[in-house]
Amino acid sequence: MATPRKIRTEKTVKLFFVGGFLGSGKTTALADLAKRLLRRGMRVGMITNDQTDNLVDTLIVREMLSELGVPIEEVVEGCFCCRFDELINQMEKILAHRPDVLMGEPVGSCTDFVAAVANPIKIHYRDAFRFAPFSTMVDPDRVRELLLDETPTSFPEEVSYLFKKQLEESDILALNKIDTLKPEERERLLSDLAGKYPEKKILPVSAKEGAGMEEWLEILLSERPGANTVLRQIDYDRYARAEAVLGWLNTAVRISSSRSFDATDLAKRLLSTLQGAFREKDAEIGHLKFLITSDGKSMWANLTRLGAEPALSGAQLGSLSRGTLVLNARVRLEPAELEGIVREALNKLSEESGVHSEIIDLQCFSPAYPEPPYLVREAVAQ
Ligand SMILES: Nc1nc2c(ncn2[C@@H]2O[C@H](COP(=O)(O)OP(=O)(O)OP(=O)(O)O)[C@@H](O)[C@H]2O)c(=O)[nH]1
Ligand SMILES: [Mg+2]
User: Fold this and answer.
1) Does residue 51 line the site of ligand 1, with CB under 6 A?
2) Which CATH topology does 13-242 take?
3) Ligand 1, atom 13: nearest CA belongs to which residue?
């Protein structure tokens, strides 16, 4: 194994990494945890991650946290595992801000984090970093669909395999979005998770509304050593197939109009056109998210499954004549088909709302076969 380059640190920095499937709530949770740390007078930095650039998450966390003095960097063009050296470069940039805690959000289709990222960091950067328990977030709907086989899925078997590997390597399993569950359903899911993963700490949380977040933070800040559950076995061909069933599209679009248009109306039209087109193809959504920015203010939209209701958040932008749209779609479609649908939806928006849209950048592909440069499958103590 090659040796990664050395870095200098003044003190040992705590690492909070939160993984989990697409749309499970990682960005929402990390932003909430960051604000809680700031309220305790601690310094925080964050690193986002994606397969290509124009990442909505980076823009959202910058919107939420930059004004609070939180440095945010990103690793793009591959997951943390496959771009380990770039992750170290970005971590070093954050270290210049002297954080107490450095947070990272691996891509939602990623697994084998402990072998490919945590263990190499523990070995090569022992004095610089200390891992908090590695958390995996799960959405209750995906638990029913991909773990318990209670609801139908249009994802192939490999996606369930990937989902289970993500759970298997966690120290903490955070059952998120409990605000959407009746108490008896919440207890049932918790007990099913405990039955399947008896050795893990299972936490019911609502990253959006705050329930359980303080308890989670206490565990992350405790001296409990983290990222200890290395996957003993993982079939990279199955893992690669799970990633490759998703079309992955990131685009940045300039929108303008000679007359003003309502930003919320535009967002709703775009959501409904895209959701309609994906429904016609029975193309399950991993996560569709976009952000509209104008005059330094942003609103954003999320849709985390084909049958779900979209959510709109952020500022009320009201009536606009120009703005930018950054859109990320992870959908079970061939990339060319996904790109066609998104381009058509943008054209439809122009026709219906009289808004001119100019694509500044567009990347669409299926994630490549994961090839982490450093893999340590033995347990490594901190
Ligand atoms: N009801 C509810 N919604 C939540 C909660 N946490 C997150 N969400 C919503 O779930 C959607 C996805 O949240 P994100 O935080 O972007 O999820 P993510 O895991 O970072 O998504 P990717 O980075 O694309 O994998 C957003 O609409 C969030 O508002 C929660 O506790 N309750
Ligand atoms: Mg995210």
Assistant:
1) no
2) Rossmann fold (3.40.50)
3) 25
